[in-house]
Amino acid sequence: MKRVSKKVMVYFAMGQLGWSILSGIITNLLVNFYLCVTAYCTPYNAINPSNQYSASESIYNVA
Questions:
Q1: What integer is the mean pLDDT of 40-54?
Q2: Which of 18, 37, 43, 46 has CA 20 to 30 A from 1's CA?
Q3: Is residue 33 within 8 Å of residue 45, measured between CB atoms?
Q4: CA torsion through residues 32, 37, 43, 45, sign
Q5: What's the CA gap between 40 and 17, in Å, rounded?
Q6: What is each CA distance from 6 to 2, 13, 44, 51, in whole angstroms?
Q7: DSSP string of the chain?
Q8: Picking from 5-9, 12-16, 56-60, which range would have the lowest pLDDT averaged per residue?
Q9: Quick one: pLDDT at residue 12?
Q10: Range of lowest pLDDT (3-7, 34-38, 48-52)
């Protein structure tokens, strides 16, 4: 069997790293879209985050 050069191994490793990063980004986006972590999250808020509560507002202020 023919030996694989270091150059080919580095290119292969870079490709695998790229695919794994892309997969992680897509997985993270899907989880954040379907599993919203705020207390008053609706599908609209997941798409339009400007409609969510700010950090200074308390989710317990129900006035």
A1: 55
A2: 18
A3: no
A4: negative
A5: 37
A6: 13, 10, 50, 51
A7: -PPPPHHHHHHHHHHHHHHHHHHHHHHHHHHHHHS--STT--HHHHH-GGGSPPTTS-TT---
A8: 56-60
A9: 97
A10: 48-52
The residue type at 54: S
Instruction: Compute the distance between CA of residue 16 and CA of residue 27 in angstroms, rounded to an integer.
Output: 16
Q: How far is CA 7 from CA 12, 15, 19, 33, in A?
A: 9, 12, 19, 39
Taking residues 28-44, report their average pLDDT: 67
In this structure, which amino acid lies at residue 13?
A: A
